[in-house]
Specification:
CATH superfamily of the largest domain: Winged helix-like DNA-binding domain superfamily/Winged helix DNA-binding domain
Number of helices: 9
Structural class: mainly alpha
CATH class of the largest domain: Mainly Alpha
Helix content: 55-70%
Shape: globular
């Protein structure tokens, strides 16, 4: 995984082409860096949300819309609430407090959302949700 101050497309693409499985900007919040490292250890490919938005243009689009739309339809009401708060930038403890549920429950919802949206990071999930007009 690359952790850097460079967020331009050239640096990102060179890193990914060289085999990086994730790309994070150094100005990320400490808790985001920690969760990103955990996600990486669990097999994810974390990428900063700002950078993630640029990748589909570079590679000619995202996964087939029909597949993602079929998965998105199955989001529960609570998953949609959590997704909207994630998209607004709220952290797990903040979402838990707002929805009056445990942070473990929020984390579980987020894992399920990632799975249903075929993403492995906040950025990918928010990107796909936006593309599918879920948020």
């Amino acid at each position: 995984m690359v952790i850097t101050v460079f967020g331009d497309e050239a640096h990102v693409m060179r890193s990914l082409e060289a085999g990086a499985t994730g790309y994070l900007l150094k100005d990320s919040l400490p808790e985001d860096i920690i969760s990103t490292i955990q996600l990486l250890r669990n097999g994810g490919s974390p990428i900063n949300p700002i950078i993630a938005r640029r990748l589909p243009r570079r590679f000619g689009g995202a996964a087939p819309a029909a597949t993602l739309e079929a998965q998105a339809v199955s989001l529960s009401e609570r998953e949609r609430e959590v997704l909207q708060l994630v998209a607004k930038g709220f952290r797990v403890p903040e979402i838990a407090k707002l929805l009056k549920i445990s942070h473990h429950t929020v984390a579980s919802h987020i894992k399920i959302i990632y799975s249903k949206l075929a993403g492995s990071s906040r950025g990918e999930a928010v990107y796909e949700a936006s593309r599918l007009r879920l948020i």
